[in-house]
Design a protein that fits this description.
3 helices; Immunoglobulin-like; six-stranded antiparallel β-sheet; 13% helix; 12 strands; 197 residues; globular; six-stranded mixed β-sheet; mainly beta
C-alpha cells in the first residue's frame, strides 16, 4: 500500500512538470526580470501567436531623420536622436486569428542582454504608420489592409524606439510584447521576438 502511495506521488509530480513550456512566458515577481523566460525568442520575420493575436516583425531598421523617406514615418515634431542614441523602427503586423473580436497588445518594449529596457517613443494617433492597438475583427490585421502602412515599403505598423548606441553591443535585442499581468501569481505574461539589429 505504501509503495502504491509513493507511485501516485511520483505520477502527480511528473504531471506537474509536464505542464511547463507553453508558447507564452512569464517573469515571476514584480521586478522587470525576476525570472527566466520558458522559451527562446522567436526570430524576426517569423510569426508568433500570443493571447489570440499573431504577431510578425517584418523588419527592424535604424531611422535616419535626415532622410526624406524616414521623416515620413515619424511625427513632424520628432527631432533627431540625441548624441549616443539612435532611433530604431520596428515594423510589424498583428492579426486576429480567432473567430471573436480581440485587441492586440498596446504594451511593448525592447530589452537587451543586460536587462535594460527601452520603452517606445509615443507617436500621434493621426500618424498613418504608427502602431495603434484597437479591437480587431476576426481575420483583421494591423496595419489595415490597403492602408499606407500596409502598402508601403515596410508593410507594417511602426513602433519607434530610441536606443542608446551602447545597447547595440548587448545583442541580441528582443522585442517583448506584454500581455496580462496576474496580480495573484505576480507574473507578467509576455512573448519575445529577437530583432535583427
Amino acid at each position: 500500500m505504501k509503495r502504491l502511495a509513493n507511485v501516485a506521488v511520483c505520477l502527480v509530480l511528473a504531471a506537474a512538470a509536464a505542464g511547463c513550456g507553453e508558447t507564452t512566458t512569464a517573469y515571476e515577481g514584480l521586478g522587470p526580470h525576476s525570472g527566466e523566460p520558458d522559451e527562446e525568442a522567436t526570430r524576426e520575420g517569423l510569426a508568433i501567436e500570443f493571447e489570440d493575436v499573431e504577431y510578425n516583425v517584418l523588419i527592424t531598421r535604424e531611422l535616419n531623420l535626415r532622410d526624406v523617406e524616414d521623416q515620413g514615418y515619424v511625427d513632424p515634431d520628432v527631432e533627431e536622436a540625441p548624441p549616443g542614441s539612435a532611433y530604431y523602427g520596428v515594423f510589424l503586423r498583428a492579426c486576429n486569428t480567432t473567430g471573436d473580436p480581440v485587441a492586440p497588445s498596446a504594451r511593448m518594449r525592447i530589452v537587451d542582454t543586460q536587462e535594460n529596457f527601452y520603452e517606445p517613443t509615443r507617436l500621434s494617433a493621426d500618424n498613418p504608420f504608427a502602431y495603434q492597438s484597437r479591437e480587431l475583427q476576426p481575420e483583421e490585421c494591423l496595419p489595415a489592409s490597403g492602408s499606407v502602412a500596409d502598402t508601403g515599403p515596410t508593410g507594417g505598423s511602426l513602433v519607434l524606439f530610441e536606443v542608446p548606441l551602447e545597447a547595440i553591443e548587448n545583442r541580441p535585442l528582443e522585442l517583448e510584447i506584454l500581455g496580462d499581468y496576474n496580480l495573484t501569481e505576480r507574473e507578467q505574461e509576455f512573448t519575445a521576438i529577437e530583432l535583427d539589429i
